[in-house]
UniProtKB/TrEMBL annotation:
Glycerol-3-phosphate dehydrogenase NAD-dependent N-terminal domain ranges (all copies): 202-372
Region entry Disordered, spans: 556-584
Name this polypeptide is given: Glycerol-3-phosphate dehydrogenase [NAD(+)]
InterPro entries: 6-PGluconate_DH-like_C_sf (IPR008927), 6PGD_dom2 (IPR013328), G3P_DH_NAD-dep (IPR006168), G3P_DH_NAD-dep_C (IPR006109), G3P_DH_NAD-dep_euk (IPR017751), G3P_DH_NAD-dep_N (IPR011128), HAD-like_sf (IPR036412), HAD_sf (IPR023214)
Top-level taxon in the UniProt lineage: Eukaryota
Domain Glycerol-3-phosphate dehydrogenase NAD-dependent C-terminal: 392-542
Pfam family, one: NAD_Gly3P_dh_N
Enzyme class, UniProt record, top EC level: oxidoreductase
Cellular component GO terms held in the UniProt record: cytosol
Keywords carried by this UniProt record: NAD, Oxidoreductase
Species of the source: Chlamydomonas schloesseri
NCBIfam families tied to this protein: glycerol3P_DH (TIGR03376), HAD-SF-IB (TIGR01488)
Length: 584
């Protein structure tokens, strides 16, 4: 009988429990009697790939992609187990196996002859596997440990206090009746385990430009079918139903895979399914992405109360906030409050059409719950869309919200025909006020967040290429030309159904500034607000310090009136600030 057969017999005896592990090891030592070179030759002749049970590598890859830690506990030898672990992507610190003790050559310092085994390894003894698991549990606070194996010593893992919580017996290579009888679950094909693992279903709530650019990336990611695939291919997208050229917009999207009204240039992908009923769109979703203009979000959330799958997680891409008598509320806070689910945010310099064109863009996921953030990162991350994780969700969302006010100021600078120096002054002051205001409302907000793509990055992108900038620019030009137009009118004409966030946000933020008596501390925010509400002419966009020095008087009427803070100086005509007031 050859060495292989003799070792196999011993291994089987240890695995079916008829020989103690210590005895089996001793006998194996006598049979193997190998040198380091013999081991190298064996590994070369039998590379790990040739020794794998079918389906095990895919199963491990898939579990790791779900964030599960994988350990390899073997009654075999470390020298032979480590190459297998490397092939399976299991870190060597997660391997428990017997260590060989070698005789060392005094001259060369090299190992020469096998002389025994390190009996301090848990795997050198019976009950070694539950002991190894107990060690793992001491070092890591795992809730659940599952043992998968085909031997009695694997089954022991679940029969001993402190060991595994569940044992899945494997008959993939060899079926051992005693193991099959006792296992919590017995499989003959690792793909059975793979198939029963949960896959996450994703829903998008919103169908505007950014919602479409985002769902396109998500659909590209969910469509990938490989061992690590964690997501259901189809992504359901709630579409605020409307007619488009005589047809329902949802029907057009489902037949052409394009949203011709809000994102006309781009194919969303065959796996995006437009759904007109919001409850149907999210009912089965594990991951819910909110991306609707902020003014609609309260009504959206109210419709979803009690309709969300238990355990679902959310992320908000919406930029904006809500102001209630009891104080401000960020959109993610509203989702959390009304729906009772975790909600991260994704914020960055993310102009939708540029992302549709697959130009490099960066975003952060601001999170409280790291597991949720990592899952969302997987559905957004693309080669052209770099997503990093930021443990400051409030800071990130405040940045995304407030930069829209600054972008209005930047648009005014453009409308005034001024150059980059003036715009830089507005951007710089805007960043200062964004940070100060965020920290004043939420002291936990981090300074560094403003240096991220959700801070300075988004601010620059929006002040140069955003819709708020565009509409404010045209609004300013119309004012200067003496043919004033309203923001609503320009929004409808220029954006064709897309929504501005900056004007509403400016009014919402100003309400807070007024309530708290902070207007003077935020000269740019205050001046922009006064300009868009017709109290100051657009030129104050670059003279915001002076613009904020006017204070508001309510002379017994509902109407606000701006007057210079130093009343003795001459004021311009009427209650509306003019160039002469600026001299005050
Ligand atoms: N467009 C962009 O480049 C970016 C937008 N964002 C933010 O994403 C959020 C969503 O913006 P977009 O997707 O661009 O939308 P959008 O402004 O392009 O389109 C407006 C959307 O609102 C929907 N709508 C109209 N009336 C509604 C109602 N009564 N109830 C519910 N929905 C209604 C429309 O159907 C449409 O889907 C906003 O907060 C925006 O600031 C963030 C980054 C980039
Ligand atoms: O938030 C944006 C880019 O990140 C888009 O801003 P606008 O709404 O001004 O286009």
């Amino acid at each position: 009988m050859g060495v292989k057969e003799q070792v196999e017999i011993l291994t089987n005896k240890a695995m079916d429990g008829s020989l103690s592990l210590e005895q089996a090891l001793d006998e194996r030592l006598n049979i193997i009697n190998c040198s380091p070179d013999d081991i190298k030759r064996f590994i070369k002749a039998h590379p790990p790939a040739s020794r794998m049970a079918p389906g095990i590598k895919d199963l491990i890859t898939s579990l790791q992609a779900r964030g599960k830690a994988i350990y390899l506990i073997s009654g075999g030898f470390r020298e032979l187990t480590l190459p297998i672990a490397a092939y399976l992507g299991i870190p060597k610190e997660n391997v428990f196996a017997n260590r060989m003790n070698w005789q060392w050559d005094d001259e060369t310092g090299m190992p020469t002859r096998l002389v025994g085994f390190d009996m301090s390894e848990p795997t050198a003894h019976n009950q070694g596997k539950p002991q190894a698991i107990a060690r793992i549990r001491q070092r890591n606070p795992y809730n659940t440990v599952v043992m998968i194996g085909d031997g009695i010593t694997d089954l022991e893992a679940v029969q001993t206090t402190g060991g595994a919580d569940l044992f899945i017996g494997s008959g993939v290579v060899v079926e051992r009746p005693a193991v099959a009888r006792e296992a919590d679950w017995y499989v003959y094909d690792y793909n059975d385990l793979l198939r029963t693992m949960q896959r996450y279903s994703v829903a998008m709530v919103g169908s505007g430009a950014w919602a479409c650019a985002a769902v396109r990336m998500i659909a590209q990611n969910t469509q990938v079918d490989d061992a690590a695939d964690e997501f259901v291919d189809d992504v359901r997208m709630w579409v605020y139903e409307e007619d488009f050229e005589g047809k329902k917009l949802t029907e057009v999207i489902n037949t052409t895979h394009v949203n011709p009204k809000y994102f006309p240039e781009f194919d969303l992908g065959p796996n995006v399914v437009a759904v007109p009923n919001i409850v149907d769109a999210v009912a089965d979703a594990d991951l819910i992405v909110f991306c609707a203009p902020h003014q609609f979000m309260h009504n959206i959330c109210k419709q979803l109360v009690g309709k969300i799958k238990p355990g679902a997680m959310a992320i908000s891409l919406t930029k904006g906030m809500r102001v209630r008598p009891e104080g401000p509320q960020l959109i993610s806070q509203m989702v959390r409050r009304l729906l009772g689910i975790d909600c991260c945010v994704l914020m960055g310099a993310n102009i939708a059409t540029d992302i549709g064109r697959e130009q490099l863009s960066e975003a952060v996921i601001g999170y409280d719950n790291l597991d949720a953030a990592q899952l969302f990162q997987k559905i957004f991350q693309r080669p052209y869309f770099r997503v990093s994780l930021l443990p400051d969700p409030v800071g990130a969302e405040m940045c995304g919200t407030l930069k829209n006010i600054v972008a209005l100021g930047a648009g005014m600078v453009d409308g005034l025909g001024l150059g980059p120096n003036s715009k830089a002054a507005v951007i710089r002051q805007g960043l200062v006020e964004m940070r100060a205001f965020s920290k004043a409302l939420y002291p936990s907000v981090r300074d560094d967040t403003f240096m991220e793509c959700c801070g300075i990055g988004d601010l620059v992108a929006t002040c140069y290429g955003g819709r708020n900038r565009l509409v404010a620019c045209e609004w300013t030009k119309a004012q200067l030309a003496g043919k004033p137009r309203t923001f609503e009118d320009l929004e409808a004409e220029l954006l064709k159904g897309q929504k501005l966030q900056g004007v509403l946000t400016s009014n919402e933020v100003q309400e807070i500034l007024k309530m708290r008596g902070w207007e003077g501390q935020y000269p740019l925010f205050t001046t922009v607000n006064r300009i868009i509400n017709g109290y100051l002419p657009p030129k104050y966009a670059v003279d915001f310090v002076a613009g904020a020095k006017y204070h508001i008087r309510r002379p017994g009427t509902e109407d606000e009136e701006i007057v210079p803070s130093r009343p003795k100086r001459p004021a311009g005509a009427g209650g509306v600030a003019t160039a002469s007031m600026h001299a005050a």
